Amino acid sequence: MSPIERNNVKISGSGPRAMMFAHGFGCDQNMWRFVAPAFETQFRVVVFDHVGAGGSDLSAYKPEKYSSLNGYADDVVEIGRELGLQGAVFVGHSVSAMIGALASLKAPGMFESLVMVGPSPRYMNDGDYVGGFSETQIDELLESLDDNHLGWSAAMAPAIMGNPDRPELGQELADSFCRTDPDIAKAFARVTFKSDNRGDLDKITARTLVLQCSDDIIAGMQVGEYVNARIAGSRLVKLAATGHCPNLSAPDEVISAIRAFA
Questions:
Q1: 90 forms bridges with which residues in the sheet?
Q2: pLDDT computed for residue 177 by the predictor
Q3: How many angstroms separate the CA atoms of 196 and 231, rounded?
């Protein structure tokens, strides 16, 4: 099976360069529907689903391959090679920011620029590093997800989304979590929240834009500032948007920031 079929790749727009959008945990390519079309007049726009999400081929899921973010990064590289991407822009939300960073290291030249939306290289606190969660909190989060996927989704999605005055956004995220294959979601959550990619940041040579939301319970301001400090020459833009999913809650602000950078 080709990576195009495996990852439910969709291509639109036209232009000399490509812009690839990658979704976060519990989501799918639909999360970019308010942002990606804005770039179709200047770029060949590529959206896809990570294996286990959306319209991807669930039979392609191999626990050993996807036991670390490298497996997902390998998929991105395979898609890029299939499409002949060179000098492209990679836009990654949440965990996909690190997946894109790894892909840029695996295939130098494929991605000239990285846009990291709410990135975190490590969610757990470690000594002086403040990721936002203690190891106990992460273990409790994963245990709760193991015990009751639907209940966890309903409880966590509104908190992750933020914007309590717009409950429909939290509901959309909860519905997306619930559509994800529960067994794969549990494994992906463990890989996401236990990952540590701090050592990869100073290897990144692609131009990098870090988009940091205010009041983000998943990746707080100190995390965005850490990423910015560790990636040479990167640019940090602090958005007025609140919560962890500005691609849904504040798409115009995200579009404006990407357009000014790309």
A1: 20, 114
A2: 82
A3: 15
Q: Which of 56, 94, 234, 249 is catalytic?
A: 94
Residue 162 is predicted with a pLDDT of 85
Active site residue 94: yes
Q: Which domains does the chain have, with CATH numbers?
A: 3-134+196-261 (3.40.50.1820)
pLDDT at 151 over 90: no
Q: Is 176 a catalytic residue?
A: no
Round to whole Å and give the CA distance between 91 and 7: 16
What's this model's pTM, rounded to 2 decimal places? 0.96
In this predicted structure, what is the pLDDT of residue 150? 83
Whether residue 216 lies in the annotated active site: yes
Q: Which pairs count as long-range contacts for 107-110, CB under 8 Å and 24+ apart, including other chains? A: 107/77, 107/80, 107/81, 108/205, 110/77, 110/80, 110/81, 110/85, 110/86
Q: Which one is catalytic: 23, 50, 93, 244?
A: 244
Distance CA(199)–CA(201), nearest Å, equals 6
Dump pLDDT digits (tens) for 94-135.
999 999 999 999 999 999 999 999 999 999 999 999 999 999
Helix axes 167-179, 149-161, angle to 10 degrees: 140
* pLDDT single digits (tens) 14-31: 989 999 999 999 889 999
CB atoms within 10 A of CB 147: 9
Q: Which two tokens stand for residue 189?
A: 């959550």
**pLDDT of residue 220 exceeding 80:** yes
- Marked catalytic residue, from 28, 96, 216, 234: 216
Q: Nearest to residue 228, comparing CAs of 120, 150, 129?
A: 120
Asked whether residue 178 carries a pLDDT value surpassing 90, the answer given is no
